[in-house]
Write a structure and sequence with these properties.
This protein has about 325 residues and is an alpha+beta fold. It is built from 6 helices and 18 strands. It has 2 domains: about 120 residues, Immunoglobulin-like, CATH 2.60.40; about 140 residues. Strands 1, 2, 5, 6, 10, 12, 13, 15 and 18 form a 9-stranded mixed β-sheet that branches.
Length: about 325
């Protein structure tokens, strides 16, 4: 009898299991997620913001296939505005740009078009700048804001900007910079401009640049050794720049190179951008952190991916004396004096 009952229970279990729906839904319901990348520099003539959307693949289309479909990457219609965060009624509506002036690099995602939103004017050049992204199809609005970085200038010990570069370890780079408004950190560097020509036909040439960094992520609130509102680097000798040249530029005997000019330059970044950089660093240790930092919000809550922020590029051309050109040609591969 017990053996008979065990057979009955086995049959009932098989019937129950076979009657269950074992279909597994892998995809969750689609959730609209904007991907935003915008860096506003008030000194630029035209401003661009890239806005895309996160996609979700289906059962019959792979992720690799979807990435090659432009309509899967971009919203159909958006109303994109920049506004004065202190006076929201003062705003500009950005134009949609689908041209090929700024093509996407080929790769995982489709490069058939590069949709950007652009404007020639800003509603404000100081204070806080707001971004509003409205999708009329879904009725959802996404926002972000950033403090505009402006100003900042070089003060290289008066009007004498004749740069003497040599191999002496005591000949230091004299770099003094007055920080701009709302700048949180700076990348500071020396930029070399040079022409690269074909050795067989010097009429064929291209202009190139090389950046020698004095500091990266230098916090604007660090102590300023020379003036109350300035930061100065005067401990890096020019010989380090000269030694950097053959490491950064590959020797190529089919090319001839000639110096065009040199400038001091600085990129100022906002606190938002600094936070993004910090959270994007590799984690060494057991405690994990959220690396998906974004200031794109909906109703005050983070919803998007990416960042809307401000930066500012400042530069000042320096004059090179003849001996400086000689030493650059001596250390720089295929450079001529």
């Amino acid at each position: 009898m017990k053996r008979y009952l065990s057979y009955i229970y086995t049959i009932l279990w098989v019937v129950c299991v076979s009657s269950c729906d074992n279909k597994i839904e892998i995809n969750a319901p689609y959730n609209e997620i904007p991907i935003v990348y915008g860096m506003i520099d008030v000194d630029e003539d035209q401003h661009y913001i890239r806005i895309e959307k996160a996609f979700q693949n289906s059962d019959n289309v792979t992720s690799a296939e979807i990435t090659q479909i432009p309509d899967s990457l971009y919203f159909d219609t958006l109303v994109v505005k920049l506004y004065d965060a202190n006076n929201p009624s003062n705003f500009v509506i950005l134009d949609r740009y689908d041209g090929t002036k700024y093509p996407k690099d080929s790769g995982t995602f489709s490069s058939l078009r590069n949709t950007l939103y652009t404007t020639l004017t800003l509603p404000t050049r100081t204070g806080a700048l707001g971004l509003s992204i409205y999708n009329p199809k879904s009725g959802r609005t996404y926002t972000a804001s950033t403090n505009i970085i402006s100003g900042g200038d070089f003060n290289n010990f008066g009007s004498n900007r004749n740069i003497a570069i040599n191999e002496s370890p005591t000949r230091a780079i004299q770099y003094v910079f007055n920080k701009g408004v709302n700048a949180y950190m700076y990348d500071m560097f020396v930029r070399l401009y040079y022409k690269e020509m074909n050795a067989s036909d010097t009429t064929i040439s291209v202009q190139k640049t090389l950046d020698f960094y004095l500091a990266k992520g230098y916090l604007a609130d660090n102590p300023f050794p020379y003036r109350n509102n300035s930061t100065a680097f005067n401990k890096i000798p020019w010989v380090e720049f000269l030694n950097f040249l053959p490491k950064a530029i590959r020797r190529d005997d089919t090319k001839i190179r000639r110096v065009i000019g040199l400038e001091y330059a600085a990129y100022g970044g906002s606190r938002d951008f600094a936070d993004l950089q910090e959270l994007s660093k590799p984690v060494i240790g057991f405690v994990q952190r959220n690396t998906e930092y974004s200031n794109i919000k909906e109703n005050g809550k983070q919803i998007g991916i990416g960042i809307f922020t401000s930066r500012n590029y400042r530069s000042e051309e320096q004059s090179l004396i003849d001996s400086s050109l000689f030493f650059i040609a001596k250390h720089g591969p295929n450079f001529i004096y």
